[in-house]
Design goal:
This protein is α+β, with helices and mostly antiparallel strands and 278 residues long. The protein is 51% helix and 19% strand. The longest helix has 52 residues.
Amino acid sequence: MRRILLPVGEFGILILGLVLSSWLGAGLGGGVAELMPHLGDGGMLSLFSCGFALGLYSTVWAFVVRRRTTRPWKIDYAADLWELERAERQQHPTRARFKRIAKRVLIGVPTLIAALVFFAFPVMTHLRHPSSHYLRHYRVPVPWTMAVTPIPGVLPPATPYLVLASRGSRFWNPSQISAQIVFGSIDPNADFQLSQRLADRLRAGAREQLRRDFQLGGVAFTCWQYRNPRRHFAREWWNIDCQTPAEVRQWNLYVQFFGREEVIPAFYRMIAGLTPVP
């Protein structure tokens, strides 16, 4: 029981210390600010930092003292455990070997999975969503260096997919995302004219409009590249809207790009690699 209570107690010291540090910082900053309002927000923030640092220092001190107090018992426990394991290896070598293998597997497999997700996150998303490379009538050549995920709320076969490009492997950090790309198709009986009017309205008044035309197995595919003048964030990012003509219903396709300029060549290579499938 003590073997379980010791780690729980050490963890409790850290959690309680963080809570008390925040409480001490908030109390010191707020209390002094009420007595001396002329300090302003900067002074209150400095007092909060001082109070939090004091509480954090006290937490570390208490944790170190706790570790030193329990160290002799941990050393004796580790020695007793080693003696028991040695005796088991001598009396039951086969069972001891299987226990060592099972322990290594239980530790190594989760570690390997976490490492694969961390260092090869885009590849894992492709394996998780293998149908992301196929829309209703097109195969999409999404690079394995880009992450892909379905957009919820739309039923197949018209499920759109979101493709994310990142600077490096930190896809979980929004500041590292360099592009967002949406591939999809809509119901053949939908109002295609309305869709095109909405796209034209977004481009109205845009700066640096560029047009590129592609052929997808005999189907025209037009891309408009522009900067949205009404956007108040990420002004240096580009918009690219691509779609098939309104009269193309069964083989319709739309692609929306929003990202940095350095990703645009890779995006157009994806567009050029689109392949019609029956």
